[in-house]
Amino acid sequence: MTVGQIAMRTGIAAVSAAEKEEIPHSDAPHLENTIDFSALQEKNADIYAWIQIPGTLVDYPVLQHSTDRLYYLNHTIDGTAGLPGSIYSEAIHPKDFSAPMTVLYGHNMRNDTMFGSLHDYEDPDKLTDAPYVYIYLPDKTLIYQIFAAVRFSDTYLPDYCDYEKESDFMTFVKVLCSSPGNINETVEVPYGSRLLMMSTCIGNAPNNRFLVGAVLIDEYEK
Predict the structure, then answer these.
(1) φ/ψ bin of 173: left (φ > 0), alpha (ψ from -120 to 50), beta (otherwise)
(2) CA quadruple 206, 212, 213, 219: dihedral positive or negative?
(3) Which of 52, 54, 25 is nearest to 218 (CA)?
(4) Which SUPFAM superfamilies does this entry report, sorted A to Z (predicted)?
(5) Pairing status of strand 59-63 against strand 181-183
(6) Do the strands 195-201 and 208-221 form a parallel or antiparallel pair, or are they unpaired?
(7) Which residues are within 8 A (CB) of 31 and not within 5 positions of it... i.e. 6 or more apart?
(8) In Å, what is the CA distance from 35 to each residue of 42, 59, 110, 212?
(9) What is the DSSP pairing of strand 132-136 with strand 47-52?
(10) Residues 206, 177, 26, CA angle at the centre, nearest 5°?
(11) What is the pTM of this model?
(12) Measuring CA to CA, how many Å separate 114 from each of 29, 104, 135, 177, 185?
């Protein structure tokens, strides 16, 4: 049984704080949130969200273990040890995605499952052909727009800087967007934005990570 069947899914413009605006209602489609979280959490209480990137194979539950930050790196949603693991965040990140930056991790599987198809964004056209990331929560849906797909160091992102500080936040965005890869320069990433970083490995570069970065542009009730 596939994960989908289990779930029964019935320019980067670095602007200052003075230019910060409320999250706009974007032109991104408001997709229906049909995730049955009650059914999913009966199977595994660590499932708290669902990620979907239309135009890619990314369409999975998101999990978070309360004590072992690497548990779902090598455990599936049913607790089976080994690949392909799961899409997951660490307990340092609030489950409502309210932090300045939330990092989601997933394996770069050879068949493009899990976060393998993030590497589609090595083609610059993909940033405009499949620009939106949907995070479904039990009570609302968050929409992010992808602005960066780059090769980054394997630094531990949550400790990279203090994302609450304007100077740190903007420096991170500048470094990210200066990294080798593709940038959609039409997407604004002001201080105070909420970022989603999707991180996976690079087969021939064990000391680097492939990051797909997105900024929250819209949200709506379920």
Answers:
(1) alpha
(2) negative
(3) 25
(4) Sortase
(5) unpaired
(6) antiparallel
(7) 52, 54, 134, 141
(8) 13, 11, 27, 24
(9) antiparallel
(10) 115
(11) 0.89
(12) 23, 11, 15, 24, 27
Residue type, 41: Q
pLDDT in tens, 41-99: 999 999 999 999 999 999 999 999 999 999 999 999 999 999 999 999 999 999 999 99
- Distances 196 to 1, 5, 136, 164, 166 between C-alpha atoms, Å: 29, 26, 13, 15, 17
Local confidence band at 24 (pLDDT 50, 70, 90 cut-offs): low
Residue type, 17: A
Under 8 Å between Cβ of 50 and 60: yes
Identity of the amino acid at 208 = N
Look at the block and give the residue holding tokens 């542009």. Answer: 217
Which two three-digit tokens encode residue 189?
A: 């990433």
Report how far residue 14's alpha carbon sits from residue 16's, in angstroms, rounded to the nearest whole number.
7
Q: Are 63 and 44 in contact (CB under 8 A)?
A: yes
CA 24 – CA 30 distance, rounded (Å): 13
Q: Which amino acid is at 63?
A: L
- How many Cβ atoms are within 10 Å of 135's Cβ, its own excluded? 23
Tell me the pairing of strands 87-88 and 140-153.
Answer: unpaired
Tell me, rounded to whole angstroms, the distance of Cα 89 from its chain centroid: 9
